[in-house]
Amino acid sequence: MKRVFLAALAFLLLLGCGRQEPSPFKGTDITGAPFGQRLALRDHNGKPVTLDSFKGKAVVLFFGYTHCPDVCPTTLSDLKAALKLLGPKAAGRVQVLFVTVDPERDTPEVLRQYVPYFDPSFLGLTGTPEEVAEAAREFKVHFSKHTESGASGYLMDHTAASYILDPQGRIRLFWPYGMPSADMAHDLSQLLEQA
Q1: Is 49 helix (H, G, I), strand (E, B) or coil?
Q2: Axis-axis angle for helices 71-86, 108-118 (nearest 10)
């Protein structure tokens, strides 16, 4: 998983190498990236959603799965803390989307129990395996299933990063795993002020 993350980060850093002025963001500014422009899944309530469904809000998009032992719950907890730092008014203009990379186990019912546990406004997204794979390709997210010797189930390796879209629906930022909540709040506040 570390190799996948480092390769993705190197690719995204290259996208920003031609910029002259310093970025106001703590995360990696990927404004103008030629990906992350489409999404067609269903939320954990069964409602079809696209990126247009969230126009007017900054969107934080994270791919993970509910059986994840560490990265996913930590990221969702950090996002909850970031929204708290923003305050209720600004936080109401942010939508966190958790896209499962394990639609086999992460049914809408499972997502409905898991994702809002972190914050009631967070939405879990799923689809058929093909729809999930298409969404992952669109956002340059890698995932794969693997079992460990002696394990009773399986784990999913996946890109451990978040993508942030501005209220106009344009991909703007890449946050690596472990981004501090204060930096997340700073970046979201910057995007909301620009809207």
Answers
A1: strand
A2: 50
Q: Pick from 58, 56, 57, 143: which is nearest to 99 by CA?
A: 143
> For the chain, how many structural domains are there in total?
1
Q: How far is CA 154 from the centre of its chain?
A: 22
Residues 52, 169 contacting (CB under 8 angstroms) = yes
Residue 186 carries which side chain, given as an amino acid letter?
Answer: H
CATH number at residue 106: 3.40.30.10
pLDDT tens-place string over residues 43-96: 999 999 999 999 999 999 999 999 999 999 999 999 999 999 999 999 999 999
**Domain enclosing residue 157, as ranges:** 2-194
- CA distances to 66, 88, 105 from 176, rounded to whole Å, are 19, 25, 26
Other CB atoms within 10 A of residue 37 CB: 13
Q: What would the two tokens of residue 138 be? A: 């669109």
Q: Report the b/e string of 163-183 with b at 16+ CB within 10 A.
A: bbbbbebebbbbbbbebebee
pLDDT in tens, 7-47: 455 555 545 554 557 889 999 999 999 999 999 999 999 99
